[in-house]
Each structure stands twice: as C-alpha cells, then as structure tokens.
User: Fold this.
Amino acid sequence: SVFAGPNHLVIFHMNDTHGHVWGTEDGGGFARAATLINQAREEVAKEGGAVLFLHAGDVNTGIPESDQLDAVPDFLALHYMGLDAMSLGNHEFDKPFEVLEKQYEVAQFPFLGANFVNEKRGGPVFEPYIIKDYGDFSVGIIGLVTEQTKVLEPIYLGENTIVDAEETLNMYLPIVQEKADVVIVLAHLGYHADGGRPNLSVEFTTSDELAENVSGVDIIIDGHSHTLLETPVVINNVIVAQAGDNAENIGRIDLWIDDGRIVDWRGEVIPLTSDIPEDPFIKMFTDAFYQLGSEALNEVVGVTKVYLDGERAHVRSDETNLSNLIADGMIWKTGADVALMNGGGIRASIEAGEITYRDILTVLPFGNTLYVLELTGKDIMDVLNYAATIPDGQGAKLHVAGLTAEIKGGKATNVKINGKPIDLNKTYKVVTNNYVAAGGDGYTMLAGKPGYDTYFRDADSLREYIAHLGTIEDYTSQERLIELDQ
Ligand code: ATP
Assistant:
C-alpha cells in the first residue's frame, strides 16, 4: 500500500430491520444509515481504508408497505446502499421460498446461511461464506441462522432445514481461516449472555455461547434478540456486536489491521437521530415505493365503533374481542366447525373508527394462509389439553371459535362444539393458520393431519369478514376457553 501504517476497516452493521425502510421525523430509516455509510466511505478512501456493510438478518416482516411489496423496497435499498452481505434471519422464511428467491435476485448480495441446508442434495442452499479481498488484507464472513427457525417459521422450509450452528461453524472455520485474515460470523442467533434465553422445543445456539465455545473467530455480528449493545461485548477474545432493531440505529466497528492481524479496534452503536440528513437517492426511490405500497393499503374496509384489542400481553393471556373476531372470521370464510388461532400471531390492535387494509395487515403481518384440517374429537382434545398447559405470555396461547371448554389443572373439560358435547370419534372441520397447522408454537400434534391449505391469506379473510360486517357496532370479548383455576 502507498499508505503507511495499519489498514483501517470500518464495518457497519444492522439487524432485524423488519420492514423499517422509512424513517420518521424522529429519526431512523435506511436513508439516514446510507448517509453515515457514504460519509465513512469518503473518509476512509482518503486514508486507503475500506468500508464493509453487513446485515444480520430479519429484513422481512413488520411494516405493511414493505410486507405488501414482499420487502422489495428493503432489498433494493440495501443493494444501492452497497450492502456486502446479509445472513438469513428466521423471518426470511415468513413467505414461500419463491419470495426469498425473488428477493435474492433483487438484492444481488449474498444471503449467507452456512447452516441452512437442503436435506436431499445436502449442502447449503445459499452461500455459506464469502471472502472480501481488500488487497493488503482479507476478511472472511460466515453466515448462520438460528435453529429456532424450525419451530418459529417451519412452514416454508420445505426440503430445506437448519442444522446446528456451532458444528457448522467449526466445519467452515478452517477453510475460511485459510483464506482470510479477519474472520467475522454474521449471525442471526441472538445474544442472551444477560439472560432471557427463550424456552423453545428445539436446541439452539446463541451468539454468546458461540463466542464462548469456538476459537478462531474475531467478530460476531449478531441479530435476532433485538439487543442493543451500545458498545460491543468481548467474550473469550471475540468481539460480539448487535445494533437493536427496526433501523433505529446502525452499529459501527473500526478495525486497524497490520500484517493480517487486528492491532486495534473500537465499536459503538450510532442512533439514527433526526439531525442526520437522509441520503437523497435512497429517500427518493424508497418514498416512491412507499406510495406504491400505501395505495393498496389505505383502502377503507369497514368501520368499528369499539377498540379491538390485540395488545401483545392481552392476546398472550386471554381472549379479546379482536381474537374472537379473527377466529369468527376464519369460520365465516371456510365454513369450518372450529377455528384455532395462536395469540402470538395477533400483532396489533385496531382503534375505533375506519379500518383500512393497512390496519388489518398490521394485526396479521405474517402472510399466513388459512389451513383446513380434518380432526377427530380426540385430536381436538389433544390440542386443547396442550393449550391448557400454556402459561400466560406465550405466543402459543390459544384462541378459538365454534368451541367452548373449561380449563382446569392443565386439562380441558366440558368441551362443546357448536353447543353440543364433543364426540371423540366424530370428524370435525377445523380451520387454523398454516403456521399452527404445520406444528408451529408447539402444536406439533397437528402436523401431518389430513387437510388442505386454502392458500387464502389470513389477513384477506379478516378483511372480507370485516367488510361483510360493515360496521362493527360492538364486539364484546367472550371467554370461550374458560379458565377455572383463576
Ligand atoms: P424476532 O424473531 O423478531 O425476535 P419473533 O416474532 O420471532 O421475533 P416474538 O415476538 O416473541 O418473537 O413472537 C414469537 C411468536 O410469534 C410465536 O410464538 C408465534 O406465536 C408468533 N409467530 C411467529 N411467526 C409466526 C407466523 N409465521 N405465523 C403466526 N404466528 C407467528
């Protein structure tokens, strides 16, 4: 190099942006991030350094304008922001695999996922790692996605699966170390060194465990737990960084590399405050996409005179008027005897007043479809007895229509379907969403049961049901699963 001294590498990182392309007056958004990245590019170019921009996964799902356009605005913006690579996040599997393939074409940057493999062919579906060669030094980046995806987003994995993150990393590390001076793991795994490790029916690796157990990694850029590490944490000599969520911040790590080794570093998370100007190009075309997304979403579908309660803590502990409405709409749409809805699938409330399609998509953002199952009375009892064990606060909390039961001591009793005692040998038509039907949220007893996917979006079913009702004068919440213990 013509420049004396160590080489300077600036790494920018984001994670869990969840459709939040667009900032507000209060800050945030991709156009502000672009400004900081471009400034750094100019600065380090003068000293012969380089900028690396990474995303640790969960670009998808969260803002209706983005969801409606299959996150094309997000991926295109990241492309023009010069993203070098992202790791796959669990929410990249919220929609059919073809959508992810389309996003890959739009993005034109690697979707790293060393442990996202095809079971039939074997081997990774996308790139496991990349090597960035900066002349004086090189950086290897290995992508990993949480094994939790197998229970959180099981539906669209198809013949693909997610294998052990740590084992996979150990398999690729020697190859990448051979080719690169600096090794980065771009991990959608989650940071739980401070606790809060989720309790799920699947073995999974967290980024802090990975740092603890693996040697040969310099940096873990993490996502998934939405953790804001204001400065990176060093675990077992590994720099672990995560930058919160929803494009409210961007992480920055400065490395000085001499003779292929990191000789100095510093790291921080920079809040994307309102005083940071928005990059005019990114803003211009993402705003155009917002218009496109908005037009479809602003359509008024119906009116409610009452607040429809989808508050996270409420729908994860009790039935609400909104959960009743959703479940009733599922029956209305499909003619099923019983509807089953997971509380965690309800993501927002609806205020009294006009209801737009946008409001509905905010409540049901996953793009799920209605799935009709043929279940015996005995099968339904298995579902209810599992539901009776779910503690308050879990996404698995069950909401129903067409059915009433009493819940006591972790068991369901006095079960009635359409007012008549359940017949254990009779076959009933049961509608749920494809997430639960595939065994999501622990409803594994449903996976493989006879039935069919209606390929009808849950949000569209609710939209039609609300349009059918016209004006919701009142929708009092009914306790259909009556908890007798409390
Ligand atoms: P993240 O991955 O961004 O950290 P998350 O959505 O996975 O967040 P939570 O907010 O705790 O984590 O929600 C998890 C719950 O969300 C699940 O238990 C389930 O009830 C619900 N959920 C997740 N994905 C889907 C889906 N595709 N369809 C319906 N419900 C879902």
Summary: Residues 300-483 form a domain with the 5'-nucleotidase;  domain 2 fold (CATH 3.90.780.10). The first strand starts at residue 7 and ends at 14.
